[in-house]
Design brief:
alpha/beta, Rossmann fold, globular, about 35% helix, two-stranded antiparallel sheet, four-stranded parallel sheet
Length: about 270
């Protein structure tokens, strides 16, 4: 049986035409009974992301910290969040703040099978991606553990990376792996995250010299830094990081640093 023709390759053309028409008719009925909705707000929408939710994305604009991309009142080489840290990536940039409809969109992408949102979210970071693409040889992405990817059915960062690689005609490096089972970062306090990811990633084969690493959310930079370290151990000289969003730090959890959406008077 042909996988593109579930009825069989020997079926008469007239029957195939009838079958195709029936499938289209049933598809139309399903849209009447179950109309398409925005995967973020669940309002009726012809697209997976409605215009209202897309317009609500909180975009990060300059000036930002030249190292980690945190918004600041003026450009600085490093800010209070990344100063003193040994971050293995060259620089990091994010499309927007992990709040509101952007947070909901990423949550839907990761946890609600919202794979169709990957194309929209990859375009949301096009401004930053366009600035970085000429300086890189390939695109990589933060891997999930084999168990987590099997449970989810896909890697959301991998989906984002594939859309960007196709759009910018860049090769995709897929041999960065998570080799250590660790607690999920979002379940830990900020101070614990760096130690949690130590040795968790490994690159295999030859890594291109200049790599753009894609992830969905930047919080402390620990995961991105450890991935960059693994890439450099296998040949990368420069690793840039690009995420869809950057997490505003939760003051209620005892973090003393300013949220990303607040002004930062870095010196």
């Amino acid at each position: 049986m042909n996988r593109h023709n579930p009825i069989g390759s020997g079926t008469p053309r007239s029957f195939l035409s009838t079958w195709t028409g029936l499938r289209r008719l049933l598809g139309g009925f399903s849209e009447l009974i179950f109309p398409q909705v925005c995967l973020v707000c669940e309002s009726t929408s012809k697209a997976p992301l409605c215009a209202s939710c897309a317009d609500g994305f909180s975009r990060i604009t300059s000036p930002v910290c030249e190292k980690c991309g945190k918004p600041c009142e003026r450009p600085v080489a490093d800010c209070r969040e990344c100063r003193g840290k040994h971050l293995h990536f060259t620089l990091a940039r994010s499309g927007g703040a992990y709040t509101g409809s952007l947070k909901s969109a990423i949550h839907s992408l990761k946890y609600k099978n919202g794979k169709r949102l990957a194309a929209y979210l990859s375009r949301f970071v096009d401004d930053e991606a366009g600035r970085l693409m000429e300086a890189v040889d390939a695109i990589a992405f933060v891997p999930l553990s084999k168990l987590k990817e099997a449970e989810r059915g896909y890697n959301q960062s991998g989906l984002l990376a594939r859309h960007l690689a196709r759009r910018y005609n860049k090769p995709l490096y897929t041999k960065l792996a998570k080799v250590k089972n660790i607690p999920e970062q979002h379940r830990l306090g900020f101070a614990q995250r760096g130690d949690n990811v130590k040795g968790a990633f490994r690159a295999f084969g030859k890594v291109p010299e200049r790599v753009l690493l894609i992830d969905d959310v930047y919080t402390t930079g620990s995961t991105a830094s450890e991935c960059a370290s693994a890439l450099k151990q296998r040949g990368a000289a420069v690793v840039y990081v690009l995420t869809v969003a950057r997490t505003p730090l939760d003051v209620s959890r005892g973090d003393r640093r300013r949220a990303v959406v607040d002004s930062c008077k870095c010196r």
